[in-house]
Amino acid sequence: MGISHTQTGTISTDPRSDARSVVSASLRIAGGKATVKEKNMAKGTTTIDVGADGVALITIINPPVNSLSFDVLYSLKESYDQALRRDDVKAIVVTGAKGKFSGGFDISAFGGVQTGKVDQPKPGYISIDVLTDTVEAARKPSVAAIDGLALGGGLEVAMACHARISTPTAQLGLPELQLGIIPGFGGTQRLPRLVGISKALEMMLTSKPVKGTEAHGLGLVDSLVSPNELVSSARRWALDMVEGKRPWVASLYKTDKLDSFGEAREIFKFGRAQVRRQAPNLQHPLVCIDVVETGIISGPRAGLWKEFESFQELVRSDTCKSLVHIFFAQRGTTKVPAVTDLGLKPRRVNKVAVIGGGLMGSGIATALVLSNYPVILKEINEKFLQAGLDRVKANLQSRVKKGKMTQEKFEKTFSLLKGALDYESFRDVDMVIEAVIENVSLKQQIFADLEKYCPPHCILASNTSTIDLNLVGSKTRSHDRIIGAHFFSPAHIMPLLEIVRTNKTSPQVIVDLLDVGKKIRKTPVVVGNCTGFAVNRMFFPYTQAALLLVEHGTDLYLIDKAVTKFGMPMGPFRLVDLVGFGVGVATAMQFIENFPERTYKSMVIPLMQEDKRAGETTRKGFYLYDDKRKARPDPEVKKYIEKARSISGVSVDPKVRHRWRGLSGSLTIGCLTIISSSVSHFFSTQHFQQLAKLSEKDIIEMIFLPVVNEACRVFAEGIAVKAADLDISSVMGMGFPPYRGGIMFWADSLGSKYIYTRLEEWSKTFGGFFKPCAFLAERAAAGAPLSAPVEQAKSRM
Ligand SMILES: C[C@H](O)CC(=O)SCCNC(=O)CCNC(=O)[C@H](O)C(C)(C)COP(=O)(O)OP(=O)(O)OC[C@H]1O[C@@H](n2cnc3c(N)ncnc32)[C@H](O)[C@@H]1OP(=O)(O)O
Fold first, then answer.
1. Could you please report the per-residue DSSP string of 535-562?
2. Both ends of the chain: CA-CA distance in Å?
3. Separation of 780 CA from ligand 1 center, angstroms?
4. Are 663 and 769 found together in one domain?
5. pLDDT at residue 229, as a whole number
6. pLDDT the model gives residue 688
7. What domain count does the chain have?
8. 657 with 716, same domain?
9. What residues does the 3-hydroxyacyl-CoA dehydrogenase C-terminal domain cover (predicted)?
10. Which tens digit of pLDDT belongs to each residue from 712-761?
């Protein structure tokens, strides 16, 4: 259709303050054409294609998601200038190449903006000069033809057009807040005018996109068509506008969807209250509301300027840096050196078996059937099997109740699940996930059976959270296909999947499981084999530090409060209650056996267990629980703490200098034997008093710096390939606040020297638990960040 002109070689304006910018290098012309080198440097472009019908089709091209780099944005402006200049162009259609409109502003450019390494255009250039004064104010109408996705800046470009045609499945949204910023190309002003203030705030504050069909209902999209008809319909629509057959709407000045001032004020008030309650540590959602409000009160142009200023400030904030780090770290977990770069293609997994229908097994089976995998659920008897099947059913039904699944879809999904009491039906499965209790000999027997019944290509995965996989597979000769698939409870909801490889697991099997992980919508992190892997190893010192503090005098509820305020979903004691003391103690035993030198052996939990307290399930743990599972502090807990103190020799007498003797002998509680501590050291009254009066900052550091210390060990041992994988593991497995960037990213914000000094100081008082590891000591001595790659780590992979 028509003549095609790519824009790489045509510059009409240079909006940048410094024309010799990094960006301009990619657009500069050498003898009328960009050199090959310069072309290769360009990060995306637009093309313009003028048809015989007089419609200029401008296509955004920047794979994989047509993000809006500065190159693309400048090229968009140039394409527009050309289309507006040319007499043979009557109207304009903007679209994205290969079925994707645009994934928004190029997030990889944020770093350059933050450090000032990329020259930015003059203030307000994109949102005002380009989108408002060129696109929206043009004397030729524009229609956005949206397929795939129009997110962030992508949707903002589309909203500056005079109409939007979309496919029913396209995703439209302004997810900027999940990156710690607000929309910066006019979205805060145009979205409320297209869909109303309430809906616009909801879309921005939750960062959730809407599908084309919903967008149509909301008025964000003017017409829905199939992908095949998208561009032709948009062309017709644009020409209809030229001929006055369809309205030509500038979204920025629309007022019909706006509420009255009084109503708007109420909506803003409600929004702010909700933000303060749900995200008390975050500023940018409040800024977003302020910016929308400015536009409503002072007019959209004032709103655009306020948006620009706020965006510039937020993009440089620590929150934005942390969230952008998390964005890329999450996508980086599937890039595993010497595994995903070998050119291996994932094999097709047609059928999966899950062994064990308990909480974990049924959750895993739910996650699998939800992604259309046929699943066999195996149990040891009819009763357990039925209970397992019922759990999966209940998981799915809860989705129906919440309106997330139709009854018809429920029936189809549930029919993918079959029960089994033996291994006969395992003869054609491609993957088995064992999810039985943490019992080594039971697991060994199961894996030996699996080797007999499953086909030789079948992936043999274990959901163990702590047990060494070499031990699990020791009675087989299938070590190359044994792998850990460690889900987090509830498995159908929690987003993380720890993929544990031994030094014998084949790369093909890892690639296969990564693919299954992606299909069941998990974020997989590949880790090496050791007790507790990455997440539980980091979790362990978290609870331990909390117990140590409590035994030394800090109020347990104060600890939970401080930790929640820091941004964790719950404090360590509330978490132990939720997980249950049984699981907590079983896990602790693994650590005591494997890392005795850095285990703090508290008796608080075993003493409580002795009194039939086991956490939330018994309605009594560190908290008391009512019928609605609401937790309230229990003054009785004090007595267990005091008893534990007397056992461990920790005294609270302020006048005397006490010796912390440690335990001698062993104490048997139920089936649990806590081996006596060999560690003995001193602590002073002064320290007790300090601990009783710790500031929130101290509490946070005494809880999380041991976690950092363990994360450093995990990294140094090669259990995690990249520090960023530990960031994702901490955010998705532990609930570490993403806006702090994950455990290693946060640690680097404090500095290795500072962390080392703090831990060293506490270790002198409290012993081995706080002792900084060699890796931390080395990084501190070198003044190096903890997240810098480990060059010669003894990789266990
Ligand atoms: C001024 C403006 O208001 C500011 C903005 O526009 S900020 C940007 C707003 N946009 C967003 O937040 C969207 C972010 N992207 C996403 O949510 C998802 O990537 C997506 C829904 C677009 C695609 O998801 P999916 O198909 O699962 O692919 P996903 O693996 O996430 O991304 C594919 C690749 O595109 C990259 N990518 C996605 N969106 C990008 C963006 N906006 N900028 C740069 N790269 C992006 C990813 O990093 C990934 O790269 P990789 O293959 O090298 O790892």
1. HHHHHHHHHHHHHHHHHTT--HHHHHHH
2. 55
3. 35
4. no
5. 98
6. 53
7. 4
8. no
9. 532-625
10. 999 999 999 999 999 999 999 999 999 999 999 999 999 999 999 999 99
Which protein residue's CA is at the shortest distance from atom 13 of ligand 1?
Answer: 103
Whether 176 sits among the annotated catalytic residues: the reply is yes
Determine the 3-state secondary structure of 787 from DSSP.
Answer: coil
**Domain co-membership, 58 together with 114:** yes
Tell me whether residue 510 is in a domain. yes
* Ligand 1 atom with minimal separation from the 104 CA: 6
Identify the domain boundary among 316, 337, 362.
316
| Domain finish residue from 693, 717, 736 | 693
Q: Is the pLDDT of residue 37 over 80?
A: no
* Single-letter code of the amino acid located at 354: V
List, in sequence order, every beta strand (DSSP E) within 592-712: 623-625, 631-633, 659-660, 667-669, 672-674, 681-682
Provide the percentage of residues in the chain whose pLDDT is more than 90. 80
Is 346 inside any structural domain?
A: no
Same domain, 541 and 661: yes
Q: Whose CA is closest to atom 22 on ligand 1?
A: 103
For atom 14 of ligand 1, which residue has the closest CA?
103
Q: Are 435 and 358 in contact (CB under 8 A)?
A: yes
pTM of the model: 0.89
- Find all residues with CB under 8 Å of 588, minimum gap 6, and list them: 540, 543, 599, 605
- Cβ of residue 156 lying under 6 Å from some atom of ligand 1: yes
Q: What pLDDT was estimated at residue 674?
A: 29
151 lines ligand 1 (CB under 6 A): yes
Q: Does residue 27 contact residue 11 with C-beta atoms inside 8 Å?
A: yes
Task: Quote the ligand 1 centre to 113 CA distance (angstroms).
Answer: 17
Domain span at 555? 536-693
Determine, yes or no, domain membership for 794. no
How many whole angstroms from 107 Cα to the centroid of ligand 1?
7
**ipTM for the complex shown:** 0.99
One domain for residues 450 and 551: no
Return the CATH number at 638: 1.10.1040.50
C-alpha closest to that of 231 among 91, 130, 78: 91
Pocket test for ligand 1, best of 65, 66, 102, 147 (most atoms within 8 A of CB): 65
53 pLDDT above the threshold of 80: yes
Say which residues have a Cβ less than 8 Å from residue 93's Cβ, sequence separation at least 6.
55, 56, 57, 58, 142, 143, 144, 145, 231, 234, 235, 238
Give the active site residue among 38, 78, 136, 156: 156
